[in-house]
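Pilot study result, target chain (423 residues):
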Amino acid sequence: MEFEIEWLLVLPLFFALGWLAAQWDSRKRAQESKKLPKSYFQGLNHLLDQEPDKAIEALIDVTRVDTGTVDLYFALGHLFTQRGEVERGIRVYQNLIDRPDLSETPRLSATFKLGSAFLSGGLFDRAEQCFIQLIGTSREFEARQQLAHIYQSQQEWQQAIGMVQALKETAQKNNPNYSNHSSSSDKQNTQALALSLSMAHFHCELAIEAMHRKDWSVAQNEIQAALTERPQSIRAQSLQGQWYAAQERHNEALAAWQNLAQAQPEAIPLLVNDMMKSFVALNRSADGVEYLYQQALDTGSIDVLDAWQLAQNQYADSTQSLARLDALFTRHPSLNALNQLLNARIKEEEVGSEDERSKAALIRGLIQKQVKQLSRYRCTHCGFEAAHYYWQCPACTRWETYPPKRLEEIENIKRTRDNPNNY
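Predicted structure:
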């Protein structure tokens, strides 16, 4: 009984101590909030109301009152660069870096932000200087990524290769299992594949430059380096054929391209124009026309169809065009094939009356307008559409994000997959 009485005496004491602690905490928060300038809260309210101009002015007032607000400098710099006022953002980050009392971690962050602001403004040299300063620090990996982007943008392929190689070594140093895909995370695997892909394309770019100079040994070395990086690279294998063709070794070029087409059929639309040139150079234009026609029948590719139609008109009997186009359209119906078929029919039949010619021209115009809209490539990463095929997307700068298929082909494949019975 005495034990219970003692606890009854102690419990009120615990409640009293808890109440006093709560009161002290609330007073402390009130004192801290009083230290913050009124402009700080005004700036937050403007941000919530999506009024960046007023928010910037309010936050500038805060930094004038309290120069120790490092986070506000970062907020200001971000707001300036987000609004396109890169010069003001650069000044904010530069003023922050110039502070002698700034500790190491925020100084590194400010240097990285300053480099990013220079990059946004197109000042590549100054951005490069900022990121080079971060090598050997905790922000090294991010800095090297930005440097690789700079060198790639400036088409300085050799420096880009060196930087990507350094990125690989840095990642390996930070994670010994980085190169072991079975032990790495999905994020690390994706990162490793992206670096390998970039490296292969950098070597391909150097190979193209060497081929333009007719420096065949350097070009071959770069192609082999790309294939070492990515043995199944369509671009590197395609370049191998171009390397042969540029030296008038067309039989070897055709063999290289045909092997690639057999191993990776998705590459065929990217090969047919070069292949036809080699067929012509070997005085085998008829074989080339037949090869392209069979590939058009097998793949249904719009690019292969266009290449065959051009070759058919130049090197083969035009009387066969209509029947072959009809067979292609029957097997792979598309607006592009229909446009080609109508053009061939109108040319052969030579519509007589003016009214009939006018109607035919109207129909062809409508179809060609739609064909032009659908005869584009679309980046699978950012959705940017282009009339020509690019190995690197001009918008998001990622490599191999364009499938070698036109939009109409992709839509037809999707429609067939969603509705296999064509209902």
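One observation from the pilot: Residues 28-36, 63-67 have pLDDT under 50 and may be disordered. A full batch analysis is planned for the follow-on phase.
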